[in-house]
Specification:
With 164 residues, this protein is α+β, with helices and mostly antiparallel strands. The chain has helices spanning 13-27, 34-46, 97-111, 126-134; strands at 3-7, 50-57, 62-73, 78-88, 116-122, 138-145, 154-162.
């Protein structure tokens, strides 16, 4: 199955909003109305310190997205990237699309001169943790989160991939 990954454009906002809603449903979180989400995504697409990457399937439709933010880190004396959200549509999972989004995000971070890429993941998201570890990410910190929340209860892993 063909797949392309590219930086999001304004025409991709509806796809990203659908993905955000799917992600929120998965985590059982409430979200803002679609129009407010769309305005937020538009603002982030225009932000030079944010990248949205979209995965486009062989049919030409969007099957997933990744949001990555950039900042200067005192801890590495240089820029770092933080992968904030990764989402692949349920019908498109287990086909390597998430990994391809991650590969593209890491390539963007390298292109921007980042010294590391960071992300947070709930430790019970075993599939994601396994992929991140295979890609070279290592867990540098664990913390308890969301006590009483059956979806996200457990520990959140802070994972790092050193680039330079």
């Amino acid at each position: 199955m063909g797949l392309s990954i590219r930086l999001a454009e304004l025409t991709d906002i509806p796809c990203i909003v659908v993905g955000l809603k799917g992600f929120a449903a998965l985590l059982q979180h409430e979200l803002l109305p679609d129009q407010q989400l769309a305005l937020g995504v538009e603002r982030l697409i225009a932000d030079e310190n944010t990248d949205f990457l979209v995965a486009i399937g062989a049919h030409g439709g969007c099957v997933g997205f990744l949001q990555q933010r950039y900042r200067y880190s005192i801890w590495v004396s240089g820029p770092e990237a933080n992968i904030e959200d990764v989402f692949v549509d349920a019908r498109s999972r287990k086909k390597g699309f998430g990994r391809k989004l991650m590969d593209a995000a890491i390539a963007q971070a390298v292109m921007r001169g980042c010294k590391r890429v960071t992300l947070d993941v709930i430790e019970t998201n075993y599939g994601a943790v396994k992929i991140y570890e295979q890609m070279g990410f290592s867990c540098v910190r664990r913390r308890s989160v969301s006590e009483g929340d059956p979806v996200t209860e457990g520990r959140q892993l802070f994972m790092v991939l050193t680039l330079t």
